[in-house]
Write a structure and sequence with these properties.
With 485 residues, the protein is α/β, with parallel strands linked by helices. Helix content is 42%, strand content 18%. The protein is built from 15 helices and 14 strands. A six-stranded mixed sheet has the order 4-1-2-3-5-8, sandwiched between helices. Strands 7-6-9-10 form a four-stranded mixed sheet.
Length: 485
Amino acid sequence: MGKKIIRSDGINASEKYLQKLCEKSFLRLWSYPGVFRDQSSGGDSKGGKEICDLLVVFENHVIIFSDKDIAFPNTGDIGIDWSRWVRKAILESGKQLYGAERWIREHPERIFIDKHCNQKFPINLPDLSETKFHRIIVAHGASDQCKLRLGGSGSLMILSNIIGDDHLKKIESGGLPFFIGQINLKRGFVHVFDDTTVEILLNYLDTISDFTLYLEKKEKLFGNKKIICAAGEEELLAYYLKGIDSIGEHDFIFDDELQGKFQMVYFDEGLWIDFINSPEYKSQKEANEVSYAWDALIEEFVTHILNDTQYKKYPDGSNDQEIILRFLARESRTKRRFLTHLLFELIEKTPASERGVRVVTPIIPSDPYYVFLLLPKSKKKTEEEYREARDFFLQSYCMVVKHDFPDALDIIGIATESGFGEYHSEDALYLNAREWDQTKNAEASKLKIDFNLLNNVKKHEEIVYEYPIEKEKHRRKRKRKRKRK
């Protein structure tokens, strides 16, 4: 049944810091430092060899991190110093990433989260035909010298037509210290973050959906025929956050007419500073505070999975439960803010002695339906009796949602006690509503009638603004229009 999952920790200070950032962004169930492969051909473990410093697996995304803390040389010749540093910190790390990817593709069953290769990687890897690999180097050691010589934030500059060993060219032959391009065009794009930008990226894009969307859009940007030049990764991010495409996603949006005329696109210094000093950013940051309760809820479930202390056990252990939590973790930061607001509002409005329920219908058709259930505790019932009753009602509500909303495919139920008592427990349930027939529909109809479920549903619609200050701007525009009339 279940099994305790013992995770490794980063070895040095930089790996521990990367681990901390990734656990905050991707959460512990999907983020594993120190991933190993066994070194035997027949499966008998003889001790493991590390394949990457940190591995994130979420749905069809596999993110491979290589963390390198290489002291910047000091020979007095900046060309020599740069070529020595970039060889070890960037080019050799790139080879390790490609090697890790090859092993994951060829031997997905021989990946372990401990050096002795006793614990297999606990998350099922996606079908390789659908897997999106993202390769990331986190290179420490050059930022101070970069800031000293070029000024700015210390982030490495980007120039996409520097390829492979071009990074090693002498200055007199066209070499550009502190500029990073691409590692190997044939083997796939590699992102390079440094001391400055790894913190910016992982602190701002701090959900798996927000982060991987940025990686995909950036990879697409570098895949076109134009030369990409940027004063730093953070400037790319700032420009990306300004653009919204036809389906409402952030993207690198350029004027069609101008795009056809130029061979190079340059992202100037100062875009990121302007963004974080903007009213939009400040309103977003303040509004997002509540959303971290959603992260805490996921981590509460994750803690019990890792320690094998769940109240309810599942036949396939962590993989069964990972499917449930995956829906919660898939949500963007803005969507988490919205969901947390609705959950907290329900808790505040529901007296401790009453049952409360709220159904959240999806904004995008492929998103799940959510059922939030609050069930009061009774002194007449034991903890076991109460949890059984709550599980019954949660399952029943989810079934009734499918009955009332026939198009629903994925339904997530979250339940806890009514009121603000000191002790709270949580349940999470997933109903795959694709597996539905007339018998189940009749059962749901009976539950709806017998227990008076969802008979007084009030529809609630709300526009969610990523930057809440935009809501005030729209309100003022409407007000001015009414006055003119």
